């Protein structure tokens, strides 16, 4: 039996709840530490708490608008999308080069609405930020593939497949 130089509990050999929880946590940290990727997922989940509050609704998609398709030629130059959330409207044009996105935010007064930046995010986490001009317009060469567009704190689109 080994002798300890520190007393195990300062209250006559009894642990209070806080001391016991610290001791158990210390043992688990030594025996089986939390994997780094699990910590990253947990921290990301905290940031996702308000995501459903910001999620925009798709109002229009030129790829599914039958009457518009009949008026166009078969060579479609770009796809038009319109999203809305709480009176804020985001119009997007996805060009057929797979990277160019042109957008317009209504209301267009970026300065008074606090809409100074738009972010385009890829599924791998790549993030491209672009400033919005005084009329609510922006143009960005985003990452190729599936993306979503975010107006930080105000609106985020679902994932968009080009």
Structural account:
There is one protein chain. With 162 residues, the chain is α+β, with helices and mostly antiparallel strands. It has 2 domains: 17-47, no CATH class; 54-156, no CATH class. Helices cover 25% and strands 31% of the residues. The chain is built from 5 helices and 9 strands; from the N terminus they run αααβαβββαβββββ. The chain has helices spanning 17-31, 36-47, 51-54, 66-71, 110-113, and strands spanning 57-61, 78-85, 88-95, 100-106, 117-122, 127-131, 137-141, 147-151, 155-156. A 5-stranded antiparallel beta sheet has the order 1-2-3-4-7, with no helix packed on it. It has a 4-stranded antiparallel beta sheet with strand order 6-5-8-9. A hairpin with a 3-residue loop joins β8 and β9 (155-156).
